[in-house]
């Protein structure tokens, strides 16, 4: 019998008189680790580390504890078999299930008891002892109830408690502690997924690739997305922005360490989607990101989308937010007043509105609208400054059920006008038409929504509640309604050509042409359509249908009834040829040097289409067409479109750099910033060529051609009025 066993037997005999110990068979135990090796006789013993934790409990109890609960007989030594290494979390047979016993939490300031020590990963842990309510506490130690007695399950003696870090060493997180001595692995916590990667579309559904933001820092991506000019008058630019905001892609670099990485970028995406009138997409995107756990910026975007859609109850889920800046505090304060009103607590809503007014966070429109809800005889405000009518104000005006003056919405954002136009329960019928027209031509309403609004308005009769809609009459929408009411024969295309010819605003021309692009695409070139051939050809080019455009272009030289050839118009024929080459890459191999020479000769003659032709040749060069050397030399001195929108040289240089490096997301965002809210037709020749060249370099040739075609058509290239 070893000296250690003799000491153990002697101590037990002293504590429990009369207890006899028989010679038990020897227990087979696994090899000891270096920390457990006995010290050789005569060798100096290593000093114990400060505040060393006691080893795991054995079959011995403290005297006070033993008096309170008798010691259970020890199980035969041969019955205990250590768990196999392949099952590191196995519990010895007969031990109570760990799932049924709650894990005790040590009290503050109390020494951690041995069974509370967590073993190194990969080492078996015995089940906690069975509960015994009558157990007493050990003096000086905080012992949770039920842990004063021993468990009958044997405790593996090779389990070593974790030693605390030496004094002066920095604290080491438990899940990343070096556990090489215990045989475990050092683990690091997994970073939470980035919210920037949330999206609705992928390359198979019109989105960009997963590497959209590769090479762009997160801070730069946030800045670029937050500055996107939405809504976009240009359909091509608006489509690019929509794809950029909805694509499911890997998060840009630089967001590690945040509690919710990617939250700022997602908040910027939601804000721009709402500004562009894409409320359904914003709501779906917010639903994927667990907005309730996010910051105030995310909650503000989700609540705005709900209010504009008329869902006040869903928006009230965010009413407890406070907002980090003044705009956030104002919005959430108004939202709380709306929620009180929705609950029928008018007094609380009024108190909240007065509090906002005292803090300077509520514009007079909000207070006056709330007063009109409480007191129906009170008048509504007649006018409002820019930004005063937002989502909360619109919700209050809906609540009044009264006709608001049109001047109240004259300075409203396009997203507000879109929500007003699509509100079928609104009493402002004539105002709805004017608001819909303004939202559509600003780019905040889709073609399908505008057509549906025009078709539904056919049966709407004037109402006494319409008010004075002189500022937003919707006169152009009435023309669209008349066109849609015509039979889909030659009568409608000819009327469409007349409407386009009379439209002088470039942005409205492009929006109307794209609105009826589907109708034109289904038409076969017929002699009866000869009077509208030029405009129909340009409409087809805007939709990317170069073949139909060529078919219509051949009609304008033919008399509609006799079929005889009329006097040729070489300038128009050359203009249309340039447009066809800009629109479609199918004609890249059919590029004729004479076409470029003829076009430049027309520019040199100083005709009205000269600057437009020079711009077209510049864009063809940006798309990679090889111009003749003599044409390139003469083009360098030709006059192009000056452009009404100023562009910073720094922005152009940054755009070129992003395109050449293939940073797709950054290239798209910078190109949209250069295009701006007024459309590509407002750019000068150099800026427009830089946008086209950068998009093509980033692999977006189709998008580059669409923007170039819009600019040339809006400038009047190929039009009879030129």
Question: What this model shows, in words?
Answer:
- Helix 9 (326-342) runs antiparallel to helix 10 (346-358), helix 14 runs antiparallel to helix 15 and helix 17 crosses helix 20 (533-542).
- The chain has helices at 3-15, 63-68, 218-226, 235-246, 263-275, 279-287, 296-308, 312-315, 326-342, 346-358, 364-374, 391-400, 414-421, 429-442, 447-456, 475-485, 491-502, 506-515, 517-521, 533-542, 546-553, 570-583, 593-604, 610-622, 629-636, 649-661, 664-675, 685-697, 701-714.
- It contains 29 helices and no strands.
Q: What Rg is obtained from the alpha carbons, in whole angstroms?
A: 39 Å
- Counting helices, strands and paired strands, the structural category is mainly alpha
Based on Cα principal axes, name the global outline. globular
Number of helices: 29
Encode the helix/strand succession as letters. HHHHHHHHHHHHHHHHHHHHHHHHHHHHH
Strand content range: under 5%
Largest beta-sheet characterization: none
Report mean pLDDT, rounded to a whole number.
74
Helix content: 40-55%
